[in-house]
């Protein structure tokens, strides 16, 4: 007997839950050949505000967790992604072998960042020489809530901008790839089952031009990653809005997501705290 497949409903991911957009809107997602794949939620400004609230609520607990614990959770995300390789390969499309290679690269990238969790402070921190009976120590601390416009690469690119932000203790609101948002929501399902506290990562699907300026202007957002913005005018608008509360801004650049990422992205949204402590003479 023939049967109808149960089609997946793609929603947003906010605060550890999967709500529909409060506006009730959606938009069609098509394959590279123009074939209809699914309807994705079209997030609104209200959804963006809700996501920022969820990220701020989660910040204290996540930034206060030990680096080792954050690394364990990222490794668990990699484990769960490994178990769903075939599903992600289907959503990425293209040749099966090439899609699986891209999924494997995303898994490896998560493991790589997980390993950095308890080492990045030693690399980016310092004991500073001073002319006096003091210890002067500089240590990196998470910057806060980071708004991220994800790149067009819907999985490896997404992982490559989200993982360095959260492994260092930040929380984030992510605007998924506008043209290929489906892997981002499926990745959210992986996050929801990987011990990651709700609100640490929040994923919105929809229009960059609608969401990015409001996140850039939001006074409770501490950093802005515009990696996925292709429109120069939109980039300028977001940078101007971000200046209102002196957000750290990462400008769009063409990146090879398969290359060694280094520590640059982990350092980008960290603040350095310097402590002076007297010593005996």
UniProtKB/TrEMBL annotation:
InterPro entries in alphabetical order: Ald_DH/histidinol_DH, Ald_DH_N, Aldehyde_DH_dom
GO molecular function terms attached to this record: oxidoreductase activity
Pfam family, one: Aldedh
Keyword ATP-binding among record annotations: no
Residue ranges the record marks as coiled coil: none
DNA-binding found in the keyword field: no
Domain (Aldehyde dehydrogenase): residue spans on this chain: 29-250
Keywords: Oxidoreductase
The name this protein goes by in its record: Aldehyde dehydrogenase family protein
Annotated organism of origin: Nonomuraea maritima
């Amino acid at each position: 007997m023939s049967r109808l497949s149960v089609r997946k409903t793609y929603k947003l991911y906010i605060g550890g839950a999967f709500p529909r957009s409060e506006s009730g809107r959606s938009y069609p997602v098509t394959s590279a050949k123009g074939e209809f794949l699914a309807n994705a939620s079209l997030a609104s400004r209200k959804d963006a505000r809700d996501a920022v609230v969820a990220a701020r609520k989660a910040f204290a607990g996540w930034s206060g967790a030990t680096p080792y614990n954050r690394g364990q959770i990222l490794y668990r995300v990699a484990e769960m992604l490994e178990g769903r390789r075939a599903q992600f390969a289907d959503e990425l499309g293209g040749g099966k072998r090439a899609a699986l290679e891209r999924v494997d690269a995303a898994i490896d990238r998560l493991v790589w960042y997980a390993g950095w969790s308890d080492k990045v402070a030693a690399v980016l921190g310092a004991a500073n020489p001073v002319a006096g009976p003091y210890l002067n120590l500089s240590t990196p601390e998470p910057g806060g809530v980071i708004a991220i416009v994800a790149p067009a690469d819907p999985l490896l690119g997404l992982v490559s901008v989200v993982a360095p932000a959260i492994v260092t203790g930040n929380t984030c609101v992510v605007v998924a790839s506008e043209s290929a948002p489906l892997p981002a929501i499926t990745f959210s399902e992986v996050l929801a089952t990987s011990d990651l506290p709700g609100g640490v990562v929040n994923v919105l699907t929809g229009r960059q031009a609608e969401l990015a300026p409001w996140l850039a202007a939001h006074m409770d957002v501490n950093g802005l990653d515009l990696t996925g913005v292709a429109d120069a005018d939109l980039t300028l608008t977001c940078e101007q809005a971000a200046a209102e509360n002196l957000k750290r801004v990462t400008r769009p650049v063409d990146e090879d997501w398969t290359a060694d990422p280094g520590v640059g992205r982990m350092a980008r949204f960290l603040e350095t705290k310097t402590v002076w402590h007297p010593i005996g003479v």
